[in-house]
Amino acid sequence: MKLRNWPVRLVLGCIAAGALVYGLTHGKLSEDEPKPSAPPASLSIWVYSKGWEDVVRDFGQSYPHIDVQIRSFRSYEQLYTELLASISAGAAPQLAEVHSFYGIAQLAATGAALPTGNVLTAGKPTFLPAFSAAFRYRDEDWAVPFGGSVPVLYYREEPFKRLAGRAPALGTWEEVRHTLSLAKEPPREEVSKGYGTMTVDKELPWFLASLSYAPKETGGPAAERMRSALELWRNLTHESRLMKPLQHDKAASDFINGKAGMYVGTSDKLPTIERYIGGKFSFDLAKLPEWKQEALLPGVHGLAVLKSDPERLKAAQSFVQELMAPEAQSALWNTAGLISVRTDVIGKLEEEPALSERLRRILSWLPSLAGRAPRYDDYERWKRTERMLEQIELNPQEPALDVGMLY
């Protein structure tokens, strides 16, 4: 039996010797061989506005080891509702674009967001106060503002200048109504009836609040201002018939395509409007006409940082710091139509001799901005205001009730 087993033992011995030799020669990397690269850090960002492609590309050049994954949403409302759901499910991104319209106080209450003091560790630049106030809730800043816009009135220059015999006066809503009436029933030349109407973009609660905004006023006086703004809205829609009801989703395109002579929109739409009009007709813009407001209410974009593991949090901090750098802030107007939030960048822009006259005019309105503190029920107020304006546009007799609960 022993003689019969010796071939088996010989084979097992050879295998063991081979394994020993392989382990000694290949068991560890030589000093000359490169070590495997570390896996890339991942960063998930949710956004809803345009122009992020250039920002992400520039960030990738500075941080090639960070894999940025962008998820785009059709609207801020869609992003906001899905963000709250993802927080409840424990699947939130590391960064989310937020807006001053609503949501920041409710986001802070979830406990998933980080105060910006934990994010801007390399030093906080000086922001325009009206922009930074948009995300301050209970003595903490819950998002980093990176760009803003203001409500403006766009108008076609040629017909109104010809009918009025001069550049139109559009400083008040009375002047706006008078100018539109000239184009609606021209005394001499035939003018398209569309020029005698105006369109208002879909951020209706913001525009309504902008007509009555008084930063230091609350209670009864604030409610009276809001009632007056609602009556103006009712008049434009029904008595004057200057604003088409329920046409807000097409507001910008109606203006561009010549179906309206004026358009109430946001300053961040200016690059898009300039590109689509492309010299087909002359247009200009004016500050939102005066009604009962005492200040200009800005719209502010920000980035909220959500709690995550240390590696992803570090990547999120790097992205925010890169976005807030002077070079990135200076490019915001061209990439997204947004006004920089940094006072030093705005100062340098104002010194640029080649700055467009329209942008220079927008920057001249910044001293009249006043921030609005977030409220926990802002989203409910926003939706309630949308519904009321819809009812007023449908029914001229719709009563304006509970105005203190509007946006």
In short:
The chain is built from 16 helices and eleven strands. With 407 residues, the chain is an alpha/beta fold. β1, α2 and β2 form a beta-alpha-beta unit.
What is the topological layout?
Blueprint: H1 2-26, E1 41-47, H2 52-62, E2 66-72, H3 76-88, E3 95-99, H4 104-109, H5 129-132, E4 136-137, E5 140-141, E6 144-149, E7 151-156, H6 157-164, H7 173-184, E8 198-200, H8 204-210, H9 219-239, H10 251-256, E9 262-266, H11 270-277, E10 283-287, E11 299-305, H12 310-323, H13 326-336, H14 343-350, H15 357-364, H16 378-394
Parallel strand pairs: 1-2, 1-3, 8-9
Antiparallel strand pairs: 3-11, 4-5, 6-11, 7-9, 7-10
Helix pairs in contact: 6-7
Describe the protein's architecture and organization.
This protein has a 5-stranded mixed sheet. The chain has a 4-stranded mixed sheet with strand order 8-9-7-10. The protein is globular and about 65 Å long. The protein has 2 domains: 41-149 and 298-368, Periplasmic binding protein-like II (D-Maltodextrin-Binding Protein, domain 2), CATH 3.40.190; 151-297 and 377-405, D-Maltodextrin-Binding Protein, domain 2. The model is unreliable at 1-12 and 14-33 (pLDDT under 50). The longest helix has 25 residues, at 2-26. The chain is of the alpha/beta class and 407 residues long. A hairpin with a 2-residue loop joins strand 4 and strand 5. It has helices at 2-26, 52-62, 76-88, 104-109, 129-132, 157-164, 173-184, 204-210, 219-239, 251-256, 270-277, 310-323, 326-336, 343-350, 357-364, 378-394, and strands at 41-47, 66-72, 95-99, 136-137, 140-141, 144-149, 151-156, 198-200, 262-266, 283-287, 299-305. Helices cover 44% and strands 14% of the residues.
